[in-house]
Amino acid sequence: MAYCIWHIAYRKKQIWLLVIGYWLLVSLSGCAAITETAKSIAGVSTKALETGRKSAIKKTFNYDYFTCYTKTLEILKRLNAYIYAQDVKKQMIAIYVSQSDTTPVGFFFEELDQNNTQIEVSSPSTYAKEYFAAKIFPFLEKPKSTEKAEGQQ
User: Looking at the 3D structure of the chain, how many domains does it have?
Assistant: First the structure.
């Protein structure tokens, strides 16, 4: 009789563990929160940058999306910024100020039309986003034509 009661209690415990395990598996599998948590632990999360886009520094440039993206990437490499994430589909580049300064800065690209792309510079640090906007935006501005009208010297 005692064995039977113990066996029933043991089976109930097993069933509850299976139910809880199944619930955890279903509710957490493929969940963006888990992926983002893992990225945060690894130090490569872009969530803070995406959230900070509301206060980003924005400017539009007379380039198509791909040209604007690749030129920005080239400039960041020349500035020795540590690029930790880049995604052409998400239209973003995420960097740390340097290998020793892990302040994140994000560059988000929005193709406005075939010849114009807007860049948003986002960071939790006001200084970092202003610094990189000041370094990158001038390089992306096309020089204005200085041709003189006919008959003028």
Answer: 1
